[in-house]
Specification:
The structure holds two protein chains of two kinds. Chain A is an alpha/beta fold. Chain A is built from nine helices and 14 strands. Chain A has two domains: 217 residues, Rossmann fold; 59 residues. Chain A has a six-stranded mixed sheet with strand order 6-7-8-3-9-10, sandwiched between helices. In chain A, strands 2-1-4-5 form a four-stranded antiparallel sheet, covered by helices on one side. A four-stranded antiparallel sheet of chain A has the order 12-13-11-14, covered by helices on one side. The longest helix of chain A has 16 residues. Chain B folds into two domains: 289 residues, no CATH class; 105 residues, Periplasmic binding protein-like II (D-Maltodextrin-Binding Protein, domain 2, 3-Layer(aba) Sandwich), CATH 3.40.190. Chain B has 16 helices and seven strands. Chain B has a five-stranded mixed sheet with strand order 2-3-1-4-5, covered by helices on one side. Chain B has a two-stranded antiparallel ribbon with strand order 6-7. In chain B, helix 2 packs parallel to helix 9 and helix 7 runs parallel beside helix 11. The chains are: A alpha/beta, B mainly alpha. Chains A and B meet through helix 2 of A and helix 1 and helix 8 of B.
Chain lengths: 297, 437
C-alpha cells in the first residue's frame, strides 16, 4: 500500500527522517511507533502531502505519490479541531466535499454515521457546543466519510473516555476486516498489542525495529517462565535453571525461572511427575521492547 | 479549482450570515455619516454663556453686546471704580472682568497698552481672541476718526472676491472644482485604506482561528495551502465587495433623494436669471458642487477605483495571511503588522500632499510604488492623470501582487503548521526557502 524508499527530511539542522525505508502492506493494521520527536508526524505529513521529503520516494499502491491519492487517504491528526462556529452537519459536508465526495452521497453517509454514533440530535448545533468526546467522534466521522483506502490515525484515543475508546476500537477493527489499510501511530503500547498486525519502531528519524507483531515478540523472548506448584514438592532443581524469584501463596509456590532453550525439554520431563498448576513462558511486552530499543539507540 | 470554490463559499457564507455583518452593512453609512458630522455638530452646539464684566472708562467699546456665548456686561464708570467693579464681577460669578482705563488725552495706544483682563484661573482661547479682535476693531475706528476718516467709507470700500477659475483642459468654469476633486480623491483613497485594514485583518484573524482551533491540519490533508489561502482571501474579498456595493447603493439612494429634494428646484430657479443676464454666477454652495461634479470623469474614476480596490486588497490580504500563519494568537501579530501597516499609513500621509499637488514628484512616485499606489493614485485621479502613468501604476501593482502573493504563500504553508515560539523575521525568510511539494 505504502512504500517509502530512502525518505529524508530535515528542518534546518534538525533531521526528522533519516533515509527511511518502510513498507505498509495493503489491508494491514500497521503500528507506527516511536518516542516523541522520532519523526512519526513528519512521515505522516509526507504521506498526506502536507510536506514533501528532501529526498527519497514514496509509493502509494505502487504509484508515485501524487495529488490524485489525497482522496483515498483519511487522516485523523493528533492535534485536531474543527471550525467552532460551524454546524456539525455543515462541517462534515464541507470536509467530505473537500475530499471530492458528491454532495448527495456525502449527506447520506453523514446521516448514517451520526446515527451510528448517536449524534443525530447535534447535527444542527455548532461544534463549540459539543463536549470534547463528541467533537472527537465528529472528527473521526470526518476522517471516514470519503471511505479512504488508507486510514492514518495519530493517537486516535486521546480525549475519549473508556466507553468511547471501545466504540472507536471496534470501528477500527471493523474497518480493518473490510480491507482498509490502517496506519496507527501511538504511544499507548497496550492498544497496539490489541489492534496491530505489524509494527515499525522509529527513533530519531531511523527505523529500529520492523515486522509482524508476533515475530517481534518472538525476537524479544526473555527466556523467563512462570510456574505454580504445590508447596514442598521440589527440594533440588535440575542443572541449567536459574530461579529468579519465588513466593508462597495459599499453599502454592509461585516461581519465576530463567531457562536456556535447550534445557526446556528436560525441565518439562522433570516437572511431569510433579503436581503442576501452571507453566507459562513470560510474553515479551511491547512496552518493554519499546523502552529497551529506544534506550539503546 | 473546485476545492477553492468550496473554500470561497464557506468563507463567504459564514461571514455574510453573521448578525454583526448584516448590522454593520446596513448601519455603516449612517454610522459613518455620524462619525463625520458629529464633531461638527457638537462644535456648533451653544456652549454655556460666558459673561464678562466690563468697566469701560474710555467708552471705547460703544456698548458692544458680545456674541452668542460671550456676553459683555457694562458697569457705569460714574458709579463704579476699578476695585468695586472687580468685586461686583466676582460677586456675580461672572466669567472674567475686563478693565479699559480712561485714556490720557484720548490716545488709543495708551488704552491698548493698559487694557487688562482678570479671571480666577485660565482664560479660554476663544474668549481671549474674541476680546482682542473686538478691541482692535474699536481702536482702529478711534484712530481712523482721529485721522479724519469716516469709518463708513472704509466699510463701503470692502470687496469680496470669488475668483473664477477656468480649467483650460476641461473648458468649463469649474467653480470650487478643486475642492470637490480633493474631496473625491480623499474619500476614494480613504475607503481603500479602511477596506484593506478592515478585511485584511479579517483574513489574518481567520488564519489564526484555523491555527488555534487546530482545524488546519485536517484542512491541509485535503487541500493545498495555496488553495486555502487564496480561497480565504477571495471569499473575504467578496464579502468586502458585497458590503461596499450595499454602501454605494445606499449612498446613491441618499444622493438621489438629496438631489431631487434640494438641488434640482434651486437649479431650475437659478437658471432663468442666469441665462438672461450672464452677470452673476450662482454662489450657492450646493448648486456649484452639483455643476462641478459634472466636469469629473466618474466612469474612469470608478473603474480605476475598482481596480485599485481589488488588487490593493489582494496584495495586502496575502501579507496579512502570511502574518496570521506565523503566529499562534492575535496578540503576537503586532510585530509583523508593522511592515504592513507602515506603507498604508505612509500612503495616507502622502495623499494629503498629493491632493495639494497631484502632479508633484512625491505624488508621482508614491502612486507607482505598489504598496502605496492604491491610495495615492486614487487621490490623484480626480485631477486627471496621464494614461501612461495610470497604466504603468496598474501594471506595477499587478506584477507585485503576483510576486508578493507567491512569497506570502511560501511563508503561509510553513507557518500554519508551526506552533510555539514566535518566529523572527529571519526565520520567516528561511521558511520561504523551504522545499515543498
Amino acid at each position: 500500500m505504502i512504500k517509502a524508499e530512502g525518505l529524508h527530511k530535515s528542518y534546518g539542522d534538525h533531521i526528522a527522517l533519516h533515509h527511511l525505508d518502510l513498507e505498509v502492506k495493503a489491508g494491514s493494521i500497521f503500528g507506527l511507533l516511536g518516542p516523541n520527536g522520532a519523526g512519526k508526524t513528519s512521515f505522516i505529513r509526507i504521506i498526506n502531502q502536507i510536506t514533501a521529503p528532501d529526498s527519497g520516494q514514496l509509493f502509494f499502491q505502487g504509484e508515485k505519490l501524487s495529488a490524485s491519492h489525497i482522496k483515498k487517504i483519511g487522516y485523523l491528526p493528533e492535534e485536531r479541531g474543527l471550525y467552532p462556529k460551524m454546524k456539525v452537519g455543515e462541517q462534515l459536508l464541507y470536509l467530505a466535499q473537500l475530499k471530492e465526495v458528491e454532495k448527495s452521497q456525502a449527506k447520506e453517509r453523514i446521516l448514517k454515521w451520526l446515527k451510528d454514533f448517536q449524534l443525530m440530535d447535534w447535527k444542527d448545533k455548532n461544534v463549540e457546543e459539543l463536549s470534547k468526546g463528541m467533537a472527537q467522534k465528529v472528527q473521526f466521522i470526518a476522517t471516514l466519510l470519503h471511505q479512504p483506502e488508507l486510514l492514518i490515525l495519530d493517537e486516535p484515543f486521546t480525549g475519549f473516555d473508556p466507553r468511547n475508546t471501545e466504540i472507536i476500537k471496534k470501528e477500527i477493527r471493523r474497518l480493518g476486516e473490510m480491507g482498509t489499510t490502517i496506519i496507527f501511530s501511538t504511544h499507548r503500547m497496550e492498544s497496539v498489542e490489541e489492534i496491530c498486525d505489524s509494527i515499525v519502531l522509529i527513533n530519531k528519524g531511523k527505523k529500529v525495529l520492523e515486522g509482524p507483531l508476533r515475530d517481534i515478540k518472538q525476537q524479544f523472548r526473555s527466556g523467563n517462565y512462570d510456574l505454580i506448584l504445590e508447596e514442598n514438592e521440589i527440594s533440588t532443581w535440575p542443572a541449567g535453571i536459574e530461579i529468579l524469584s519465588q513466593t508462597s501463596l495459599q499453599g502454592k509456590l509461585h516461581l519465576k525461572l530463567k531457562l536456556e532453550p535447550e534445557n526446556k525439554q528436560s525441565l518439562l520431563q522433570f516437572l511431569s511427575t510433579k503436581n503442576l498448576h501452571l507453566f507459562q513462558e513470560e510474553e515479551a511486552k511491547l512496552h518493554d521492547i519499546f523502552i529497551q530499543t529506544t534506550a539503546e539507540e | 479549482m473546485k476545492k477553492i470554490g468550496l473554500i470561497i463559499k464557506r468563507e463567504f457564507s459564514t461571514r455574510v450570515r453573521k448578525k454583526s455583518f448584516i448590522l454593520l452593512t446596513l448601519l455603516g453609512p449612517i454610522l459613518m455619516a455620524a462619525v463625520m458630522f458629529l464633531p461638527a455638530y457638537l462644535a456648533s452646539l451653544p456652549t454655556d454663556d460666558r459673561v464678562i464684566t466690563v468697566l469701560d472708562e474710555s467708552l471705547l467699546l460703544d456698548f458692544e453686546k458680545g456674541k452668542d456665548e460671550i456676553r459683555l456686561r457694562y458697569l457705569p464708570p460714574d458709579k463704579f471704580d476699578f476695585a468695586s467693579a472687580q468685586a461686583f464681577s466676582e460677586a456675580q460669578g461672572d466669567y472674567a472682568f475686563m478693565h479699559i482705563p480712561l485714556s490720557e488725552g484720548g490716545d488709543p495706544d495708551f488704552v491698548a497698552r493698559n487694557v487688562r483682563l482678570f479671571r480666577a484661573g485660565d482664560i479660554s482661547i476663544s474668549v481671549e481672541s474674541y476680546l482682542e479682535n473686538t478691541l482692535e476693531k474699536y481702536l482702529q475706528k478711534e484712530k481712523l476718526k482721529a485721522a479724519g476718516v469716516d469709518p463708513e467709507i472704509i466699510a463701503r470700500t470692502k470687496t469680496k472676491i470669488n475668483l473664477r477659475v477656468i480649467n483650460t483642459d476641461e473648458g468649463l468654469e469649474t467653480e470650487n472644482a478643486t475642492l470637490i476633486k480633493m474631496g473625491i480623491g480623499y474619500v476614494a483613497a480613504f475607503a481603500i485604506y479602511i477596506f484593506i485594514f478592515l478585511y485584511g485583518s479579517q483574513v489574518m484573524r481567520g488564519v489564526i482561528e484555523e491555527k488555534t482551533s487546530r482545524v488546519i491540519e485536517i484542512m491541509v490533508s485535503s487541500v493545498r495551502p495555496f488553495e486555502m489561502m487564496s480561497g480565504k482571501i477571495i471569499g473575504i474579498g467578496l464579502v468586502a465587495m458585497l458590503q461596499f456595493t450595499v454602501w454605494i447603493g445606499l449612498g446613491s439612494i441618499f444622493y438621489v433623494i438629496a438631489v431631487t429634494l434640494f438641488i434640482d428646484p434651486q437649479l431650475a430657479a437659478n437658471n432663468l436669471p442666469n441665462a438672461a443676464t450672464h452677470i452673476s454666477l450662482p454662489d450657492d454652495g450646493l448648486l456649484s458642487i452639483y455643476s462641478s461634479l459634472q466636469s469629473i470623469d466618474f466612469f474612469g474614476i470608478i473603474a480605476s477605483f475598482l481596480f485599485y480596490f481589488i488588487f490593493g486588497y489582494l496584495l495586502y490580504a496575502a501579507l496579512f495571511a502570511a502574518v496570521g500563519s506565523a503566529v499562534d494568537k492575535e496578540s503576537d501579530s503586532q510585530q509583523f503588522m508593522l511592515p504592513i501597516s507602515l506603507p498604508l499609513i505612509l500612503g495616507l500621509l502622502v495623499i494629503i500632499r498629493a491632493l495639494d499637488n497631484p502632479d508633484g514628484d512625491i505624488a508621482f512616485w508614491f502612486s507607482m510604488i505598489p504598496l502605496t499606489s492604491p491610495l495615492v493614485m486614487m487621490a490623484r485621479l480626480p485631477f486627471g492623470v496621464a494614461p501612461w502613468e495610470l497604466i504603468l501604476s496598474m501594471l506595477i501593482l499587478l506584477i507585485s501582487f503576483v510576486l508578493l502573493t507567491w512569497f506570502a504563500s511560501k511563508i503561509y504553508r510553513i507557518g500554519i503548521l508551526m506552533y510555539g515560539k514566535k518566529p523572527t523575521f529571519i526565520e520567516l525568510l528561511r521558511w520561504a526557502r523551504y522545499k515543498n511539494q
